Amino acid sequence: MEILSYFMLVSLAVVAVYGSDSVDLPRSSRLTLSQKKSTGFLHLDRRDGLASEGIKIDAGFWYADFTVGGASNLSLLIDTGSGDIVVNPGIYIPGKTSENLNITFENTYGTTSKDGTGSATIVGDLYSDKVIFGGLAATHIVGAANGTSPLQKSGIAGFSGQRFNQFPASSNATPFFQSLCDQKKVSECRFGLALSDDGTGIQILGELDTSLYTGDLVVAPIIENWVLLGDLVVGGEVQERDMLIELDSGTATIVGPIVTVSAIFNATGIQGVLRSTSEGDLLTGYFPCDKPPTVGFNFPPKTNASLAGKDSLSAISMRSSTFNIPLNAWAAVDNGNNNCTAVLSGQNYEAHPGLWVIGQPFFQGLYIDHNLENGTVGFAKLKRTSPGRSTTAPTASVPTPTGDAIIHKHSAWAMLVLAFSLVVVVTM
């Protein structure tokens, strides 16, 4: 889910400071998922035998089992688009180390509905307590909601980038994975999401698991948290460059600016219907279920790749690669009679002009490495994926914008972000 708060996107220095008095040895955790499609239940086991956890999928959102304080088996939404752990009313049980901070919080989330729209505000009280996930434990600031909460299951667990949360600054809260890093509970400050397009997957904490993907890891710099730049590719041709993109596992669809999405629909034969909602205008697409289009994104964008090519020490890939939305993920809803609602929709975010929010349908068939130490995101094709995912390998020449379908909608604000997009400072 997207956090509806101001992105400090023009501040591109990412500073990671690690320190802890914990005596636990750093380690990693691999969480294996398998899906029972008839019930939508996913079971998750650590492959190294050190822990066993459960995870569920519901309406396009992924849930995993956490222990928060004295409450175990809490099903929390895994969300790279937010940074806080919040449990629903009546669920939080103080653990042995619990401390009431006497601080209240008010968090607002976007893209809370399965169609990528909606927002929700949650209020409650803050506590410091132990949180356990995948056998890894950290002392962490958690929110106990009161009143009513629109969150499903037990609540939400934010896996956003460094220092990105909504809790009041006086709480000194950090995202949960950052807490694991700060307290030296993981070998490396990185985690991977490997969700296959057949309904199975693995979440990896504390390492890069090269055994799960094929080819090279395509590495792109983040601007802040899991926001980065990418190029739009339609039918194999680049149609727009240096778009602002948020990778958000807590969004069940893919949402882009209305003008851009409308151009995609026109170019690919998708019927677009524009309607007004409480969240603003929403462009929905309908297409023949047996004819999904080919639409994807280039990472890193050509601009970043070109700059990386001039620096032999850069961790950024020197060539762009195209990763398409899986063909079998295009149907958000099957309406019958070979008519499907597209997983791609158009919506404008007033506070963030031009922003794309790419949800979990794009994640399918990919290994996505979230590296806080280097301030990067890496992409690679998973091994043994179905043909629904097509990936274009790096080539000697990158497609260039051609034809009337080229979209020019860059704002001056977005270009200011671009000018500094390779600045990543890591202090250990």
The CATH class of the largest domain turns out to be: Mainly Beta
- Rg measurement, Å: 21 Å
So how many helices?
5
Strand % is 35-45%
- Mean pLDDT reading: 78
For the record, what is the CATH homologous superfamily label of the largest domain? Acid Proteases
Measured between the Cα atoms of the first and last residue, the distance is: 30 Å
Query: What is the 3D form?
Result: globular
CATH architecture of the largest domain: Beta Barrel
**Order of neighbouring strands in the sheet with most strands:** 5-6-11-7-10-9
Number of domains: 2
Helix/strand-derived category reads: mainly beta
Describe it:
The chain is mainly beta. It has a 6-stranded mixed barrel. The chain has 2 domains: 177 residues, Cathepsin D, subunit A, domain 1; 209 residues, Acid Proteases (Cathepsin D, subunit A, domain 1). The chain is globular. Helices cover 9% and strands 43% of the residues. The chain starts with a strand and ends in a 9-residue tail after the last helix.
